[in-house]
TrEMBL record:
Protein name in the entry: Protoporphyrinogen oxidase
Catalysed reactions, as listed in the record: protoporphyrinogen IX + 3 O2 = protoporphyrin IX + 3 H2O2
Xref: InterPro entries: Amino_oxidase (IPR002937), FAD/NAD-bd_sf (IPR036188), Protoporphyrinogen_oxidase (IPR004572), Zeta_carotene_desat/Oxidored (IPR050464)
Domain Amine oxidase: 37-576
Record flagged with keyword Flavoprotein: yes
Role: Catalyzes the 6-electron oxidation of protoporphyrinogen-IX to form protoporphyrin-IX.
Example GO biological process: protoporphyrinogen IX biosynthetic process
Co-factor requirement: FAD
One cellular-component annotation, GO: mitochondrial inner membrane
Source organism phylogeny: Eukaryota, Fungi, Dikarya, Ascomycota, Pezizomycotina
Molecular function GO terms recorded: oxygen-dependent protoporphyrinogen oxidase activity
Keywords: FAD, Flavoprotein, Heme biosynthesis, Oxidoreductase, Porphyrin biosynthesis
EC number: 1.3.3.4
Cofactor binding note from Swiss-Prot or TrEMBL: Binds 1 FAD per subunit.
Amino acid sequence: MRLLTASKGLRSPQKPLISAIRCQHRSYNAAVIGGGITGLTAAWQLIQDRECSSVTIYEKSRRLGGWLQSETIPVEGGEVVFEYGPRTLRSAMPASLPLLYLVSNLGLFDELITTSKRSPAALNRYIYYPDHLVRLPTPDPDLSLMENARNIFRTITTEPLFEGFITGLLSEPNKPARPQEEWAIDESLAEFITRRFNRKIADNLVSAVMHGIYADNIDEMSAQAIMGPLRNLEDGGILFGLLIKSIMGKKTRSMDDFLAVDAVYKTPETMQRLDEINRVVKTASTFTFKRGTQQLVEGLTRALRASEKVRLVMDADILALDPPANRGHKLKIYTGIRGEESFDHVISAISAPAMARILDPQGQVKIDCDPEDEYRALWNSKKARHPKPNIGTVSGLHFFRHATTVMVVNLYYKTPNLLPVDGFGYLIPRSIPYEQNPECGLGVIFASASSSGESPVAPYPKVSQDSAPGTKITIMFGGHYWDGWKKQDYPDHKTAVRMAKDMLERHLGITEPPALVRTRLQENAIPKYKPPHIHQIYALSRWAKEEYHNRLVLVGNSFSGVGVGDCVRQGIMAATHGVGRHKLTATPRLESKDWCPWKEYNYQHWDLKGGVPTAPVRLFESDI
Ligand SMILES: Cc1cc2nc3c(=O)[nH]c(=O)nc-3n(C[C@H](O)[C@H](O)[C@H](O)COP(=O)(O)OP(=O)(O)OC[C@H]3O[C@@H](n4cnc5c(N)ncnc54)[C@H](O)[C@@H]3O)c2cc1C
């Protein structure tokens, strides 16, 4: 004790003290529920920790990877790779760093395909409105400033898609900001954009972009969760705020991204690759794998199977997970075949409703109940004699129960360059007339373009997923348009193929029959981020910490982002901060002090162990 309180001058250098503290840590065992990308990442990070004695992964199905599903199919003249889940991984500073470090740690860096920010797939993104493709105005690096300005002005003033765009932008700075108390209450994206700009911008532009990421309806999406950085600028006017930030070179960043970059394990090979990794982040708009995102799952699985610490339980049937009777007790997982197993930490990496079923198998906690009221009622009833229940955590999880279903249709045509335009693909806004979208299409990906690019390793040769010549297209249908549908309402394979062909003929004039088609209905695949999403995350986290004595960690795409990069970040956060095994310091582990943004806050008091591991300061202004 005296040593800890000794003045700085008397203290021996920091290192021995830290290792002395570390030595006091007991070894621990952990369970990870769910073998999707979040769970596999968490398990991989856990086994890097010397104190972690074993990791048990429970996966309900017979395959690992969750929504990451790729298939390589032989066709005439070569092979094509179809993706049934994620395909393009966003490259952004610093959000994609944990994923890129993981890729490199697994020895998969050479397997990446990067799409340059200057390529047509990055520059040419379209919205279909009202009956044709409109290229979103992006400066073309091959044109002069004047030529770009003229092109952008022409598009914005002549295309019906941009009706109301200029007036919406010009009127924004004069719109009063909401009073602080009102502003603090979350609202829908549609409300926010309409309030600050106008309805047309919300319906035509924002709804299209959200179809491409969340497949959801902007009337039901949380503005704070999805456009927090913009919403924070409301006080002085959003456009003015953006201008000032760009002059000052500031960007709004997520604290969790920095926490994950700090915590993610980096092999010596990865440390040697930092320049190459930074180059990808700076020059690429997206990246993927030569044989599809499944390669990431295979890499993780290989590494996990090679570790003596890991036990993989497939076809797992978790019946229940009880809250511990007191702080010193481990968490108990009950399975059908294996019976009862105890763990120091449990990381849940499954959807919120699936976890709610495990924590409350009898379904006793009512949906939308107020946990405080329920506890009071319990206290006044005889049930109070039973061990402390988990009403707060279960009811908190119930909030995140909604998700959209999408039908993914992959098509391959023998003819190369079949598309009328070059680019990434197009999105369909909710304002599109019914006659142009009776199939409930969300967007079309020109998959040949998005799955080819260059290797991230010098001399950066051109690479493509497909060895067969031809054109690959992916269409996504459904999303929020199918909310409330029953199983029997969804299109079957034959119907989905017909819908795809009809749509491509109407929108792009494609009449050639595809040489290969695969469809996949992905049910409840993309979680809905309803308002007040962020508030509910902190509330759930508090309950879970309390009821499970900081031993239960909740991550996955239900909470802090649906992208693969977001899931990897959450997996890293869970296996480090979430299990109390990463200490924040004010000394940068990477190049500069900007990589420790927490030191501007009272980070010594941040409690990141258990619950949803996320910083109490969500966003901050950064020079990076
Ligand atoms: C069609 C589609 C396209 C997408 N496109 C992109 C894209 O281009 N780019 C991008 O970045 N992201 C994309 N995403 C999003 C991204 O793929 C997902 O958000 C991410 O893969 C979720 O990973 P996860 O591990 O959190 O969850 P999941 O993948 O759902 O994994 C959860 C795992 O837990 C298992 N499980 C469930 N219940 C239990 C239980 N009770 N016990 C044990 N195990 C259980 C499941 O079988 C599954 O394996 C897309 C998603 C979909 C569906």
